[in-house]
Input
Amino acid sequence: MQRILAIGGGGFSMGERGSPIDTYICELTGKERPQVCLIATPSGDHPRLVRDFHDVYGALGCETSNLAFFNQFGPNPISRTNYRTRLLQQDAIFVCGGDAKSAIGVWKEWGLDAVLREAWQGGVLLTGMSAGAICWFDHGAPDSALAGAQADRFLGFLEGGCEVHYHAGETRQIRTNLLERFKGSGFSSMVAIDDFAAVLYAGQTIEAVLSWKPDATAYQIECIDGYVTEQPLAYARLAVPKSRSQLLTTSVPPAVLQTYVGRYRLMSPDVLTISMEGNCLFAELIGQDKFEMHAENERDFFCEFIDARVTFQEDFSGRVASLTLRQNGSDVSALKIAGNEDL
Output
C-alpha cells in the first residue's frame, strides 16, 4: 500500500506534546514498536526538532532514527553516505517543516528523492508537516496572480498541488492570497490543509481527512474556466489520546519510593539524581531538566515525554543498590553512591 499523510500544521514540531496526530502516525504503521525516521532537511537539521522528535516518538514506543545532511546530531543518526538500506527498513518516514524547495535540492544532489520513491512504493508510510506535507506533491501554490505564474515543483509522488497552514490567522491571508493566485495559474486542482488537520492518501486517492481541533479540515481547490471553487472535505475527529501516565493504575507506596531516592553514578561525571516531591518520584541528570517518573510497577518507571525508563535493583541485603537507565534503545547501569540522607 502506497500511503502519504500530509499534515497542514501541528504535532511535535509545532510544540504540541501529546498530539493525536503523532499517535495516529504510530497507529498507521500497524506495528507494536514501529521504526520511524525523521528527515529534518527543510529546517537545516535543527537540533531542537531532532531532539523533540526522538523524545516524543520514543515515548510513544517507537524505534527512532534521523537522517541528517547538515550535521550528525541525534541519538541514532543514519549515515548520509549509506542510508538506502536503513530507510527501506522503516515503517514510517517523517519530514519536518521549513523550506521544501531547498530540501529537495539537497535530496536530489544526494539521490534521496529516488530512495524516498522506492520506500513509498515499497509500503513505507511517508508523512510530514508543512514543508514535509507539500514536498510529496507535484507543486506548491502559484507565486502570483499573473497568468502563467510559476510554482515550486516538488517530488511529484502525488498529483496536483498543496498549500498548508490554510486558515492560520487572517493577518497572513494565506487563504485569500491562494484563491486569488490560483485563478491565473493554469493549475486545475490542489488541496489546502488547515493547521490541526491532515489528509491521508492511498495511492492518488484521498482515503481520509483527520482533524483534532474544531473546524479544522482540508479543502479541494479547483479552477475551471477561470472560476475558482473551494470545497471543504468531510473529516473524522482524532480524539486526544490519554497520556501513558493516565492509563496506568499502579500506585507505589511512598515508603517504597523513598528507598529509591539518592544519587546514581552513570559514568564520570554523569550522575542521575532521584528525588521525591510529595508522593511523586523525579529524575534529573546534571545540567538537564527534571522529569517526573511514572510507575509501571514497583520497580519499573518511565518518563512521560522522553524515551527513558528506569528499573531499580536491590542487593543481597534487600537495599536499593543500583538502577538501569534505558534511553533510546541503550541500557546503562548505575550504582547508588548517595542515599536520601545525603541529598
